[in-house]
Amino acid sequence: MSDPNAQPGAPPARYDDLxxxxxxxxxxxxxxxxxxxxxxxxxxxxxxxxxxxxxxxRLVDHAVAEGVYPDMTEHGxxxxxxxxxxxxxxxxxxxxxxxxxxxxxxxxxxxxxxxxLYAMSAELNDRGQYAYxxxxxxxxxxxxxxxxxxxxxxxxxxxxxxxxxxxxxxxxGWIGEAGxxxxxxxxVEGGARAGFDNDFTQRNTTFAAxxxxxxxxxxxxxxxxxxxxxxxxxxxxxxxxxxxxxxHR
Amino acid sequence: MSDPNAQPGAPPARYDDLxxxxxxxxxxxxxxxxxxxxxxxxxxxxxxxxxxxxxxxRLVDHAVAEGVYPDMTEHGxxxxxxxxxxxxxxxxxxxxxxxxxxxxxxxxxxxxxxxxLYAMSAELNDRGQYAYxxxxxxxxxxxxxxxxxxxxxxxxxxxxxxxxxxxxxxxxGWIGEAGxxxxxxxxVEGGARAGFDNDFTQRNTTFAAxxxxxxxxxxxxxxxxxxxxxxxxxxxxxxxxxxxxxxHR
Amino acid sequence: MSDPNAQPGAPPARYDDLxxxxxxxxxxxxxxxxxxxxxxxxxxxxxxxxxxxxxxxRLVDHAVAEGVYPDMTEHGxxxxxxxxxxxxxxxxxxxxxxxxxxxxxxxxxxxxxxxxLYAMSAELNDRGQYAYxxxxxxxxxxxxxxxxxxxxxxxxxxxxxxxxxxxxxxxxGWIGEAGxxxxxxxxVEGGARAGFDNDFTQRNTTFAAxxxxxxxxxxxxxxxxxxxxxxxxxxxxxxxxxxxxxxHR
Amino acid sequence: MSDPNAQPGAPPARYDDLxxxxxxxxxxxxxxxxxxxxxxxxxxxxxxxxxxxxxxxRLVDHAVAEGVYPDMTEHGxxxxxxxxxxxxxxxxxxxxxxxxxxxxxxxxxxxxxxxxLYAMSAELNDRGQYAYxxxxxxxxxxxxxxxxxxxxxxxxxxxxxxxxxxxxxxxxGWIGEAGxxxxxxxxVEGGARAGFDNDFTQRNTTFAAxxxxxxxxxxxxxxxxxxxxxxxxxxxxxxxxxxxxxxHR
Lengths: 249, 249, 249, 249
Known about the structure:
Structural class of chain A: alpha/beta
Radius of gyration of chain A: 20 Å
CATH topology of chain A: Rossmann fold
Strand content of chain A: 5-15%
Oligomer: homotetramer
CATH class of chain A: Alpha Beta
Largest interface: A-B, 84 and 81 residues
CATH architecture of chain A: 3-Layer(aba) Sandwich
CATH superfamily of chain A: Flavodoxin domain
């Protein structure tokens, strides 16, 4: 049998200058247990063990308003926790989105997170790129029956569309066999816990965590995404970066 | 290495050691005109102008078999052009997938491409990572009514899931107003061509092209994705890279 | 030119015993104008003109809790408007879900609606079928750039999965050309209003409205979906309705 | 006409005048075993036991061309089996689409089926409705890890969009726990066969089959979808069926 403690050498870099925000989009308020949080813990432990500063947000515990403006209190809503939470997201090198699956879809709380991230997409960094450039995104999904990939499609698409870089195999998750059943971490017959012995989930979660670290390292060392051909400010000023209208050929 | 402070007048690096494969997943056989190809040309021109070696494949022109094995002729199918095409994909730093939209979905030809890319996902590179590690993927979509984002969700998800890195804003496309109408590049009233004056499409296609170049440059200079925590061969040999089963806590 | 008032005969039935609930899942609180509401009006007018009792809910105006239980106040949440709103949904023959598109997805408010509809799916009617059996569902979508079909896929799937019948062409919507731009009903150059001259949107919205009426009529006259082979209560009591396990052959 | 109060012992109607086409979109050519076919058998057995005429098509065995025209041989393709297959689809009251899942998506063969069904959507019946009006559609999905709902979303959406009616709970399927593993019907440890003991799959497949029968019965007895407000021919002739442009209010 293989040795679970075998380690081929050492990680190729240090990561203790990196920071990550982990947003759990469970529908359950604290202090109820969240299955998604249990799997997010795997990622957090790998990050923390290597010195990454990890900030966790359980979004449903915060009064985040619905809407697509940066601060909804400026648009008639009484309370909006988003502007304060966004400060954390904006400061972090890595964003990990965790969500449960309901009827094959990401949670409404996760959809709201995406709407609010998108609401900030007019923000530019000091090089005229979208504010999320240079950051890395990934996705952890749990459910009891079906939908990891569909949920990850939507989450990862949204993240890259607003400027995050998506590392290889940046999604991982656990579901059981078709139909209702235990969720990730639930105690099952014989005292074991659902999903904990799933090699696929273990491996993909580990690979996702490491690939987020590797890309964040590369991008931080490179000073972000090189600023050429992707600066909204310059595009609006008329720069075209070798774009040629097919009409001109 | 890239200079992140390069001015608009000059790209921050050279790209003439990079290669790209552009796969057009139109349903139309050559020599019929493909609207998707017209938009892919924008990407190809940017790539070529900077010395990137570009190989174009119009998949429907090749006898690619249906199936999920590397070579379907070993499974009873008479002909399979995929193994030969895969050599090109495997050699390229960048993969650009172009597809039309039909009924809100990517084309069946594009779905077949994904199936065959996936069929090779057991292949490992010499560090034990999935073979697509270190490569960059993006997506160009055209249609006449609706579905760029949905199609890009599926394509980009698949690419990252098998090992590609997805740069920021790696998708671009054009559709017209809801309902049937001209496709990208079709001559419209007054002699103009549909979509050619669309600033959103111009900008997103340009940004996507440049971001593919930037990430490919970074990854090539880094020697690929660092090999730690993501090697299938070592995982199977028992290495766990700080994965801790929540059960053990 | 065609005569917009031409009417071939008369509708084949009366509909004034039918009721509909129209749920607008805009992110905007009242009294802000909702583009989605403008298109929903088309459906409401057709329904009302034929005597259908129409109840409208703007979900974001109600304190609907996140969660997947019938009444979240029984699970520690202070306020939950859902149980009261569900009474209306449960009484109606037709459910029309209207939603905007954000980043290619249905709104978070729409996702929350689906979660709460799903939360009631343990409810059975007096024949042992799921409570939504015998009802008809449809979907109206507006945005300014892309995603009608993707959004409708999710909404209509969810509705049929919990027991609604989906008539032919039960989705309709409007989006503009790729990229930001006016939303449905916005005043555009020359004083016209965006989307109002779109034949595709006009036709599809009309067809969707009528097909919801036709199916609701058929199902009401039939006393609902015939009760055989689809009663959860009987399934759980052991009835199998000619299901044969392939293993037995 | 159906008796909604029929007892569990007897179906409420006869179905032996109905016909169904079952299309298996596996990627595997005959005579290789198809897991999807094994689950489709459950539906076919229920149909056949009640006298429904069932025609099965394994699409990959036929030389169906890529494209969006009714007959691709008129557009330069050497061979196209679709026109002949369409005759069967057009004659049947029920269409059951079966597909495997690959990387979370329906198969490319299934996507091609949808493209070709869509290619016929200009066809009208003798009342000016789309040709698929009055027919009923459903969906059976198998895989080994994830994606039933996502796949069903796309398939059922497409079917309703071109004119099929979707009964309640018209999708069913089987997948195993996250990760690779046995497919539906594979022999597993102890000689059992994967998925055969899954109550959720058994129930949903049975309910889907019966609901397709019930709706097909209702629609056949009603002479199809009532022809008012949904006839493309009349719309094009200028009839508006109480559509009122919001601009006119």
